[in-house]
Structure formats: C-alpha cells, structure tokens
Give the backbone structure.
Amino acid sequence: MSGVYSARVAAYLKRAAGAATHYSRGRNYENLLDYLMSSVPGCEVARNSLNHYGTEEADLSVSNMRLQEGLPLLPEYFLVECKNWSVPVDSTTLGYFVNVVVDRGCSLGVLAAAKGITGSQEHRDRAFAIGSNALIRKIRILVITSDDLRTLTQPADLIKLLHKRNNELTANGTIYLGT
C-alpha cells in the first residue's frame, strides 16, 4: 500500500503544481487533501460546502468517528482549507479561516498551505497572534504544507503528522509554522 499511496500523493502534487489556472491548481490540491483525509480510518469528507448565505465555503468538511486507528485525538468534526498558492499564505487569510471554523461551530481547522505561512516577520507575528488568540477561544488551527505531504507513505503518516501538529500547538501555545 505504501508505494501506491506515496505515488498517488506525488501524482496529485504534480498535477496541482502544473495546472494551467489558479482554479485548477486549487481544485487539484483539494483533490489531494480529499484523498488523504478519506484514507484515514473513520473519516468521511464533504467537499465545497457553502453556508446558507453563500458567504463562506469550506473546502473540506471532515466527520471523524475517532477510531483508535484513525484520529482519536481530534474532534468529531473539523474543516480543511486548501491553499495551493505559489507564495506563502498571509495572516489575513489565516484569520479569515479561523472565523469560518468558528462560524461552522468547529473547534479544529486544518490549513493545508502549499508554501506555508508568510515569511514576512510582521505577518508571521500576526499569524502567531491569530493562532494564540484562536487557541484562547478553544479553536485549534493545524498548518500543513506540501513539503509535509511529500513525506507521506501511508495513511498512518498523515495521522501521525496531524497528531504531532496538534501537540506542537499545545506545546507552543500558537500555530506551528516550522523552523
């Protein structure tokens, strides 16, 4: 399974990176995250859910049965936002995602940001502030990147990554942006 899984991850990443339009880049990245989350035992995914007013879209809404071999340490429902940008995500986008998570009544959001979150010190400081303020409100935001996804060889690796980022969030008191 591990060879097939890592080959699929690599193929999805290649399609997402090589897509001709921003829309296609985004949809291909969503396809990858859908595949990954759906491969976790006990997780079911709904795609591109608009709220009643059409003002907010959740790329992926995950229902997690919290199976022991799945994601037992994460909540029953959470959102995944997919940002396959050619540049790091800015702090404003992070803040907006936190609000979407709150508005949907969730306590966890996973931000899959292909290039991570901005390297600008001002925006990094803002991102840390947004992350710690979200945590005070009992909202957890886990950030994963394309570099993280390239290392996955089986669903257990994704489970380990998400649990690790959740622990780093607790240990650091704010989102984890890497070193």
Q: What stands out?
A: The chain has a mean pLDDT of 92. The helical segments are 2-18, 22-38, 91-103, 121-136, 146-150, 155-172. Strands lie at 43-50, 57-64, 77-83, 108-113, 140-144.
